Amino acid sequence: MLLRHTPTDITERKALTINPAKTCQPIGAMYAALGIHGCLPHSHGSQGCCAYHRSTLTRHYKEPIAAATSSFTEGASVFGGQANLLQAINNIFTVYNPEVIAVHTTCLSETIGDDLPQIKKKALAEGKIPKGKHVLSASTPSYVGSHVTGFSNMVKSMAMAAEPTGKKNGKVNIIPGWVEPADMEEIKRITKIIGVKTILFPDTSGVLNGPLSGEYKMFPEGGTTMAELKSTGDSIGTLALGEWCSADAARELDAKHKVPCSVLDMPFGLKATDRFIDALRTIGGVTIPEQILHERGQLVDMISDMHQYLYGKKVALVGDPDQLIAMTEFLVSMDMKPLHVVTGTPGKKFEKRIKELTKDMGCKVNVKAKGDMFLLHQWIKNEPVDLIIGNTYCKYIARDEDLPYVRWGFPILDRQGHQYFPTVGYKGGLRLLEKILGVLLDRKDRDDPESKFELVL
Amino acid sequence: MATNAKKKMVQWEPSDIKAELLRQYPPKVARKRAKQIMINEAQQNDTPALTANVRTIPGIITMRGCTYAGCKGVIMGPTRDIVNLVHGPIGCSFYAWLTRRNQTDAGPDGENYMNYCFSTDMQDSDIIFGGEKKLTAAIQEAYDLFHPKSIAIFATCPVGLIGDDIHTVAKNMKEKFGDCNVYAFSCEGYKGVSQSAGHHIANNQVFRHLVGLNDEIKPGKYKINLLGEYNIGGDGFEIDRIFKKCGITCISTFSGNSTYDQFASSHTADLNAVMCHRSINYVADMMETKYGIPWVKVNFIGAKATAKSLRKIAGYFGEKELIDRVEEVIAEEMPEVEAALAEITPRTEGKTAMMFVGGSRAHHYKELFDELKMKTISAGYEFGHQDDYEGRQVLPNIKVDADSRNIEEIEVEPDETRFKPRKSDKEMKALEKKGFKFKEYDGLAPDMDKGTLIIDDLNQYEAEKLVELMRPDIFCAGIKEKYSIQKLGVPMKQLHSYDSGGPYAGFKGAINFYKEIDQLVNSKVWSYMKAPWQENPQLSASYNWE
Lengths: 457, 546
What we know:
The structure holds two protein chains of two kinds. Chain A is α/β, with parallel strands linked by helices. Helices cover 45% and strands 13% of the residues of chain A. In chain A, the strands form three sheets. In chain A, strands 12-11-10-13-14 form a five-stranded parallel sheet, sandwiched between helices. Chain A has a four-stranded parallel sheet with strand order 3-2-4-5, sandwiched between helices. In chain A, helix 1 (25-33) packs across helix 2, helix 1 (25-33) crosses helix 7 (147-159) and helix 4 (82-95) crosses helix 6. In chain B, the strands form three sheets. Chain B has a six-stranded mixed sheet with strand order 1-12-11-10-13-14, with helices on both faces. The longest helix of chain B is centred in the middle third of the chain and has 29 residues, at 320-348. The radius of gyration of chain B is 25 Å and the shape is globular.
């Protein structure tokens, strides 16, 4: 047993987190910043934060993650990090020549109270930001929220870069939330088929799923450009996918520049994708082409074909709120039973949403926001499941409890594919379903007695 | 910043390469970096020729991590029966959770907390009102849930800033429990200039709170400690196998697959064998002063280095039985190594390598590349000090700056009752006369060829330039560097966590390494960088079909 010390008895813990189902804000900000074209993320704090975030993102995406740090030592921690950041901005523009530097804080710079907008002003005044170049900044204290919050804060800072001209651009802003580069690419494919012009931000496709060609580009072709970000204030509307990841940015554009927004669920699974497509239809004033209906029909077809293997199967889930809400709905829509649902990210709304989505399931659901994977494991020990879905750290629980397991979410450190194959939209739904069926049927083939071992479905 | 993979200097002068590395920097940065890039002349002088262990320049994309990473991640991470509780926001604990590939064997007692991640998950209210209460409660909860022998507390950046007294909390909890040793590490990330400071802080506390707690004499005739070995990819398991075969008893490993009792009993060993000089030489010094245990530098990376180190240990004990047994083991193990080399070296001979890792690793792995007849054309350390480059003889010349002064040095006295010189002065002198060297390390530089580049604290920009200009056949560093190098069409081997490979230590490990390097430098994939139509000039004419 890998997690041999996990007891079945569940005791309340007030102070100790064991096996967290979240990490800290700055890594989310760093990931989001990579979705801006020509952007070098910058971590304002001691260099370990930046090293850890780059390592984790590198392991997840199997791509180079360039990001700089203010490299605080004790002096900066006492006297403030302004000098470090000013020096860093100058060095970064001189050595790496990015279009944008996206600075996020850490718990260190937050606690000593460094004021990023003020330092940015000083950098501008001192001529450290070359003409035509940009510095974005977000406050991302590690002791508030989670990596999801950090992502949201950096995306909000992108929305704050909007500079409306007063002339509408006829485009729809889409804020995809913390999804994979492949998912962002898929959203662009869908909107292109439907014929809605969009500004997608952030957009890590083309940045974090790049080719191997013998050339290293610190700033690949992909990413939302600063010109596009400035133009978001002229858009006809914003679709924010995911309350936790995207809503703040959308509301910023709504409040400041009167760009109306709708906050939708992330388009994972059938129903959430339906609502996304329908929202695109309404906001873009278009009719949905046959091709999209065709793709939808394929997903419905596969669900109906394989329903007998899905029906009533109990599932344990761990991940980020926006993803989990959509996944829970998808599983319920296929008559599966998400029994235990944990996110590390705080938010009472999460538990309420999961309860609503599972209310007709006919059994009690354990759900916790601000929970951890130790608790999830204890729940599974007390009430076993047929499947576990979550990030790489689930592999310890999956092995100990001998569970079929689908890797989904962040981080995935030990498998490939998530950068290349989407799980959003109907096509993504097909892939998710394929993965779920794959592990369930592999298990059946492993466990069936010889007399019951069958060739055909 | 696109770079052309095809550009390669046919005849490069090291001074040209150095100039090229510095060209893009603002003048101040260039001046500083110039002191950290040394064209090796295998020099003999005593004055340090290279600046090391100095602050990283803000904004320069560094390979380094922080003090917390060195303390919790590197030194205490591989200890299996200690609950390592991180006091801070969630991230620090999360990122050090199983990511170093320290392997462990839970052993007969079954205690293993390495797969768990413990944190106080500080919230903003803890930052405002102080986190001591939460820490106290978290220690209590960990104790109630697991009843471990020991709980270690790690401070993260905000803990130092708000002034939580983690040491008093630890002391109070230790007194309260009675049967659980609780102690703390002030390893805030901003201390020092790299991970190296964290190693020092960790080792000091291990020495202060764990070493010497168990006086029970363990069975075994030739008892040693192995210091600075972390069991990445199972290295420690292979070294253990060899020790057992030779009849050498390893009382403790600092700290791969280590247990609480190993640290507690370590003062009962008769020799300290130091692998990673950087991370732990001061512990060896302290154990010598306090308990009378001499130390020698060893290296189990490389088959020849392994044989040499085993002979060194046997030579120290000086008994024929052990010396003969070690020779037998070497004779048994080497044929397989030589067979592997005979098969592989024709494919690796003359190829070139670069290594930028850790604070001893680059030196150790050079042995393996030498065995493969590969040439190390540039190397350096991420967090090395001058003595790691140029040998311990420069120690008196190293100036202590403010950043080093922040890291505590423990003053050690001989233990009143337990100090016992393992060898008499006469015996030590006799050994030295025979050429045996105690507490000696010559560093990386003497082993590097003349004209090669030794670079401290390499960064992404320089790494990319080096690869572009010198086109090594393989580049070794860490995960952050892996894919930017590979995008250039050069295979990259992680030497911190070994990608998914290992062990590379000892005899069997050496064979693993030869095979993997062969696979990497001779993989067909590196020939696929360009599509066929990119390699050939476009045809401008076309057939005229009649």
